[in-house]
């Protein structure tokens, strides 16, 4: 979700029928990276006392125990910003595990951090990696929330914001037995990749609550445009496509573990005819200079040899409204009675 109000309808009104948590959490904007000229990656740090590993109810005072912030991959946040009357809506791009405190066995001396710190990374909290949620915010000056989050970094870093979790576009798919799932389609248009990167990153985590019961194919169809201005080198161009670097890293890691079999198809709708990406594409991505077609959707949900059964597939789709409506119709035709296996969300 991008909260890009083409119709002028506030995010909270448009999503009024969606489920929301009751609690509003206070977080702090602690880190900003510009992934490309139009998308910023924001890290919102959760107060450690809220997510503390030591929180418990052994003293019987359950009502006063802070309830940790929890969410499912694919959900979004209402983001309440000081001085802006309407909350913005932005998909979470991190995983639920990132919202947990990650302790370190012992605190190395300060000199150690000075010597190994990587440029652009937030400092390490004394209790370990601080709990956080991550958002990717597209620059849209007509959207008050987005415009505020695109102010100069030194004007907004450190600001406290209010967030509330919401949304029904989630992993695991509601009402679906994961024991039956052997194929997952992830289909994105533009910033529709945001909730899908949370889902894929979650599945990539090697933890008991993320490992699927069966060897699983994951087919990613990602339609986008080149960043403007387009960098001169091929790799620099690919690095500026939203979350493509992260997608490639996950795909490569699974090539080694073989837990997930991931196919990554990138559809660049404005790729010039003389682009090196046409003549010498990287080996780990299939690059197509066109839109996603019905045939591509068929391969994603049924396999290249059409051997995947509809009841073995779940499909997640997020993109602009026209694309989403069109593709949902195609997918329903492909999966027949399995419409509950098609989960979709539109970004605005």
From TrEMBL:
Keywords: NAD, Oxidoreductase. Residues 22-174 form the FAD-binding FR-type domain. One of its GO terms (molecular function) is oxidoreductase activity. GO terms for cellular component: mitochondrion. The keyword Metal-binding does not apply. Residues 1-20 are annotated as: Disordered. It comes from the Eukaryota. This is FAD-binding FR-type domain-containing protein.
